[in-house]
Specification:
- The protein is an alpha/beta fold.
- It has three domains: 17-178, 3-Layer(aba) Sandwich (Rossmann fold), CATH 3.40.50; 198-329, 3-Layer(aba) Sandwich (Rossmann fold); 353-526, 3-Layer(aba) Sandwich (Rossmann fold), CATH 3.40.50.970.
- It is globular and about 65 Å long.
- The chain contains 20 helices and 17 strands.
Amino acid sequence: MHMSNPQPIDTAATMSGAESLVRTLLACGVDTCFANPGTSEMHFVAALDRIPGMRCVLGLFEGVVTGAADGYARIAQKPAATLLHCGPGLANGLANLHNARRAQSPVINIVGDQATYHRPLDAPLTSDTEGWARPVSVWTRTVTEAASVGAAAATAVQAACAEPRGVASLILPSDACWNEGGEVAAPLGPIPAPKVTPDIVQQIARVLRSGEPTLLLLAGRALDEAPLADAHSIAAATGARLLCTTANARVARGRGRFPIERLPYYGDPARARTDGIRHLILVGTPAPATFFAYPGKSSRPYPDDAVVHVLARAEQDLADALAQLAAQLDVPRISAPHSAPTSHELPDGPITSQSVAQILCARLPEQAIVVDESVTFGHAFYPGTMHAAPHDWLQVTGGAIGDGLPLALGAAVAAPGRRVVALQADGSAMYTPQALWSIARENLDVTVVLLSNRKYAILLGELAGVGATPGQVALDMLSIGRPDLDWVKIANGMGVEAARAGTLAQFAELFTMANARKGPFLIELII
């Protein structure tokens, strides 16, 4: 992890636990905090005021805070801190901490709590804070003494950045923050990812040389540019198929980069895509499963008789594993395919997933960051933007909706100078619309394409998937109309300029304008 402007470590100075926390985080290169603080965190807030160097971004809901920390980590490749208020504040942020865990995003999740002597009195906010944090965290600790706060913070950063990276939850009773005796801890060295042993590489090479139909399934850091190039070279030389998992933290794509298809979301298309596969080789992912079970259908999105092999687990050095495999097979390194020129002719006719994808492909800015929570309508967006300008593509990795706008907030904070384009379904946007306020307050370069179909369209498909015939009660539960949401007014109320598009021409004009200007803009696209 990059260490930015470490603070001097002065063990002679008297400081509170909260001050030692801030100074240790800065020394460890953690210089951004997404916060929704309460009473128990006021000493940390005061320390942030006294100690320069930490950028603080306020979120009006904890799910915004945790999702923003996830988006920041995916782009910055280092952790931000969160600041949450007691167990209920943590609970409000759990869904997007779940997404961050699935994305393997490093996050320093700081949760204030009741003072140690106050906790036995069972005040209203008292809860099992550590118990709630543990399932979404790779490391969890409650620190009860000011003198131990700095050391715990340094350990949290080390744990969050170790492969597979994740959420490190540091729970701080308020007296551990206000008491004197805090000490600044020096940064701990990174824990190197273990490398795959040569015998495993040789076994996988034998499978690929067998000539039997084989699929390489990639995830995590195997989708970085260099390992993805190795994977394409291996596939080209051996005839293996190549896919990535359905939802990915970050994929570098666009013109001049290697494309990669995703394993389809639904089981039947996924099984059709993997039909005939005899061997499944996993790189950075466990064996995939369908998102949900369906009556009478397999939970495996690949043939039941396929033999599953593991080249590398998520905690191992995925780039090195693919490089070793390419060397073992002695495959020639291939270049990224030449992309066909992007047509500047804009589509006409109805607003469909394909026609919107054509506009996105033609008008996406160079080095944009695309945050995809387009859900059902966006099925053509990922394949349809293969030849767009070079960009990074971020997805909601854990299936908990409401991460798109917070991811866009965090990514924009991490990458000033790059345009963030959030492709956002309306139903899931309503989980965390407060992110728009934070985006406006920070004046971030974010274009939100709000896909307004006024229904939970994905659930209509799921209803059919389990064989149910919807009646009016069911349809009413899956509709978010009556009254219709007015996203132009919602955005304006949060401080974001906005306009509505009802035709492809209007959308193309607004999308081009929004990406050329500074600051945020929301386009409500009526679909």
